[in-house]
Write the structure tokens for this entry.
Amino acid sequence: MLLEEKNVIVTGGASGIGLASVKRCLEEGASVVIADIEDSDGAAHAQKLDNQYSGRCLFKVCDVTNTAQVDKLFDDTVAELSSVDAVFNNAGIGGLCPSDDVSDDEYLRIIDINLNGVFRVARAALRVMYRQGSGSIVNCASILGVFGQSQTAAYTAAKGGVVNMTRTLGIEAAPKGVRVNAIGPGYIDTPLLEALDDDMLQGLIQLHPIGRLGRPEEIANAFLFLASDEASFVTGAHLLVDGGFTAGK
Ligand code: NDP
């Protein structure tokens, strides 16, 4: 059991990669908080999973654009579970829009969730983990943190920011016993891809030498590694889990 007796928070934990990660952590003996926006399926998932595993599974409302909700998520988790050992900073949205036609609101919303949200959650996690003298933060970046793609200016800016912010946080937190890493998924079969039409999806699949989309569980396994003591000498890294996408074709 890689996470026996550990307490984990997963933002965006009600769907896709987040939900798969919640389940893997529970399988590995952790108690897990699903943190997601109010109208997500988080409460229903938590209720079901809490009955299925020996660890606790709780749902807490947390919109990562709201600093007060993020800070409360950590305060409440510490009050209830007594520690936060690992965090998957995973909440995010997609966003396809021509750069000459994107509104301020749309651009800023993608940045606020995918970049500023990651910082808000990391900051709250660092405060708790510094007090504990231990912990692991894993930020969800993307292959689009290192590659460009047409019509994703805000998304790629945010994910590139997450990759480099992770390096800085990794350096800053290391002397306090806290590791900070990022995962860079290739295209993964989750509701996030529903905005893409079939032709676009087929074209993207061709860019993965493994020849298919990734499964959410394959990212969850990478999270599990980085969250656990198996990754005790890994910090400031961006672990690409992308079916060979960034290796080239
Ligand atoms: P999903 O849409 O399945 O899951 C994202 C979750 O985040 C949803 O539950 C969503 O809620 C929630 N969420 C959205 N906005 C907020 C917010 N403001 N505060 C808290 N939670 C929020 O997508 P994925 O599982 O695919 O994405 C997870 C992460 O993986 C994202 O950071 C994404 O950028 C990244 N990623 C995904 C890839 C892919 O191909 N799927 C590739 C590379 C990176 P709701 O559904 O109610 O909006």
